[in-house]
Design a protein that fits this description.
The protein is α+β, with helices and mostly antiparallel strands. 28% of the residues lie in helices and 21% in strands. The radius of gyration is 42 Å and the shape is elongated.
């Protein structure tokens, strides 16, 4: 008799979906016992290979493969059939021969007490949409996705705060003291880096904390005494400044060209010399601005940053008149 009469072929499908072809002797072969052991080992290895990489998904997400089947001659019984969770559960409750009754050998649990002991807690657990708001929050924070989102939001917020604190910040224009350069409601970006590396120049628009003299004029208890101000630098340390001849600005005896102002000043000022470490600032709307011609010089250390451009509203985007 040829050797092929002693061989049987079985295509075994593992939990991961792969198919393994197993060849072993038939029952009338003297090596039948070895074939049973070989088939069991192969299926055990197949189960282990499938379970190790997918255990997190199966247990964390409570996803159990319902379509997995083993078929072919093996030590699992005649026909080698491994049924789904539905069939195993049915047999546990008296619908099959798994735990008693007449066992025809067609359905035998290949892993008693193991993977097939599904808990009813999974079925009774509330779905996410059925939870209360606080339960959903708690569930989200305990999930891997929630932890990753919290990490992302924390990093993003930290970077945003760092940028605002050290590099650039938004400001809102509440009055017309800098009209026509800025109108009420304009929102602009103020950069805070260059004040540390280069000196201030004339005609630059700066945002600053009000000096002590300004606080005295408006009252220490006033809300305005704590608000940042925005004005234009018209003179730096060492400059001689005066306003004369019908409201014209003169710096070091030279009349300044100021196309960004709303109108000429209706007052006279100076001459004064800007002391070291200070600047003189005026509003572009000269006759409607509480500025340096009233409260004096501004310490350069009070400057928060330079205004660089308007970003809102869209039709006013740009930096016209800021330099």
């Amino acid at each position: 008799m040829s050797p092929s009469h002693f061989l049987s072929h079985s295509n075994t499908q593992c939990w991961c979906g792969a198919t393994i072809n197993i060849t072993f002797p038939l029952a009338n072969s003297r090596s039948y016992t070895h074939s049973i052991i070989m088939a069991s080992v192969m299926r055990a290895l197949c189960l282990a290979a499938a379970l190790l990489p997918s255990s997190v998904l199966a247990f964390n997400s409570r996803v159990v493969p319902r379509h997995t089947q083993f078929r072919g001659s093996s030590s699992f019984g005649r026909g080698g059939k491994f049924s789904t969770r539905h069939d195993v559960t049915k047999r546990r409750t008296g619908g099959g021969p798994l735990f008693g009754g007449n066992n025809d050998g067609d359905n035998i649990d290949p892993n008693p007490g193991g993977l097939n002991q599904w808990s009813d807690d999974d079925d009774n657990k509330k779905s996410f949409k059925d939870m209360s708001f606080f339960e959903q929050i708690q569930e989200w924070f305990s999930s891997d996705e929630g932890k990753e989102d919290v990490k992302t939001y924390t990093v993003s917020l930290s970077v945003a705060l760092l940028l605002r604190l050290l590099i650039i910040e938004p400001r809102y224009i509440p009055s017309l003291s800098m009209y026509p350069t800025f109108e009420v409601g304009d929102q602009l970006a103020v950069e805070k880096v260059t004040k540390r590396i280069r000196p201030f120049n004339r005609n630059e628009v700066v945002v600053f904390n009000p000096p002590e003299r300004f606080r005295e004029l408006v009252g220490e208890s006033s809300r305005k005494s704590k608000e940042a101000l925005i004005k234009r630098i018209v003179a730096v340390e060492g400059d001689t400044v005066e306003v004369k001849m019908g409201g014209k600005l003169f710096v070091n005896g030279v009349q300044q060209d100021e196309p960004f102002t709303a109108e000429d000043a209706e007052y006279e000022f100076g001459p004064v010399i800007v002391p070291p470490g200070d600047v003189l600032v005026l509003g572009d709307n000269r006759n409607h601005s509480l500025d340096g011609h009233i409260w004096g010089f501004l310490p350069a250390e009070n400057v928060i940053g330079r205004a660089v451009f308007v970003y809102w509203p869209p039709w006013r985007v740009g930096n016209t008149g800021m330099f």
